[in-house]
Amino acid sequence: MPWGEVSIMSLRLEFVMLARQEGANIRALCRGFGVQPRIGYKWLARYAAAGEAGLADRSRQPKHSPDRTPAAMEELVLAVRDAHPCWGGRKIRRRLQDLGHDAVPSASTVTAVLHRHQRIDAAASAARERAERFERAAPNELWQMDFKGHFPIGSGRCHPLTVLDDHSRYALGLRACGNETEGTVQGELEAIFRRYGLPDRMLMDNGSPWGSANAEHRYTAFELWLIERGVAVSHGRPYHPQTQGKDERFHRTLAEEAIGRRGFADLAACQRRFDQWRHEYNTERPHDALGLATPITRYRPSHRTFPETIEPYDYGPGAILRRVDEDGWLSFRHRPLKLGRAFIHRRIALRPALPDGCFDAFFCGHKVATFDLREAAP
Questions:
Q1: Rounded distance between C-alpha atoms, residue 134 and residue 246, angstroms
Q2: pTM of the entire structure?
Q3: What is the distance between the alpha carbons of residues 75 and 97, in angstroms, rounded to a whole number?
Q4: Phi, psi (degrees; rounded to nearest 5) at 370
Q5: For residue 3, what is the DSSP state?
Q6: For the residues of 354-367, what is the DSSP string, one character each?
Q7: Parallel, antiparallel, or unpaired: how do β-strands 320-323 and 347-353 relate?
């Protein structure tokens, strides 16, 4: 993943905000962001002394004066709205507070300013609805991943790949891809894993490349790639996109705020816009589901690092080991058992299950099938 396409200031601020989280492993973060520890600690010291402005290569003017007039405050409100046309009064108020402005008016007053200056209309405001929300208890317990619907660009089509942390809504990945193949997704995920570590589980839909609707080939090679690296996999119910509601909502926001009706010449132009907006989404944009906090305040990288090499899995004592043949079958007690082509040449462990005559099949500690040997042989 070409992380260098992200602006230097955005990367520095993301690093600092993650490093300031309670229990952060600063040296691990330095490795993930590709910087020497002395540089990382230098950014932290500059931020502690001067805030965000301290991360710049040269000084910046102060963002506010303590003697702002109400007219000046209105100008600030309108400036934030113009920069983020989809934000309402609550988000704008919280953003101004986060920037350190004093005497920020109430959300209703900010909304009135927007109405007065024709930045918002009553119909659009009434269309917003609140939903009951559920989330995992801690960061990295579950990541949601999906492709947003592709759209045309000057050189073809862009397929946005999105990866979202369920607990914090932190956008771990937003990549402009030229296709939706297994190799493309795997390459992008490797870069994300190296920077943020591994989640406990990933939730995806049933589409290609990570899912399969074929009952005889329920697992894909991509799923096994995740399982080998210690990441459990889950899939949403078919035809129920609300299972991945957070990522679906993220896609709506992405379409409204980052894509809109803009024209993009190529994937590089898409990625530049995605990098800019992802930084805003994670570090600046107040999130309704988080009590108007920003996602980065609730996220911390995983302590489980990405394994660059995979050692043979130890199935422990009592496991009956079999290797799957090139057609997706294994042999056990003179019986051919179908597992699927994704498992070709991989070791599988069989363990007795209930009732007698049944055996569970495991791949790297993950149960992938149950075989009933009481059934008539084919």
A1: 9
A2: 0.75
A3: 15
A4: -130, 130
A5: G
A6: TTTTEEEEEETTEE
A7: antiparallel
HSE-CB for 250 with a 13 A CA cutoff:
30
Amino acid at 107: A
Locate tokens 């989640």: which residue? Answer: 199
Q: What mean pLDDT is predicted for residues 151-158?
A: 95
To which H or E segment does residue 30 belong?
Answer: helix 26-33
b/e 201-217 (16+ beta carbons within 10 angstroms → b): bbbbbeeebbbbeeeee
Q: Where are the alpha helices (DSSP H) in 265-364?
A: 267-283
Structure tokens at 19: 């490093």
Q: Which is nearest to 197 in space by CA: 146, 139, 120?
A: 139
SS3 347: strand
3-state DSSP percent of the chain in helix, strand and coil, to 5: 40, 20, 40
- Burial class of residue 181 in the structure, from the number of CB atoms within 10 Å of its CB (0-12 exposed, 13-18 middle, 19+ buried): middle
The whole-number pLDDT of residue 9 equals: 85
For 89-114, how does the pLDDT look when each residue is reduced to its tens digit (9 = 90+)?
Answer: 888 888 888 888 888 888 878 887 88
Sequence-distant (6+) residues with CB within 8 A of 36 are: 30
Encoded amino acid at 18, one letter: L
117-147 pLDDT, tens digit each? 777 754 444 444 444 456 788 999 999 999 9
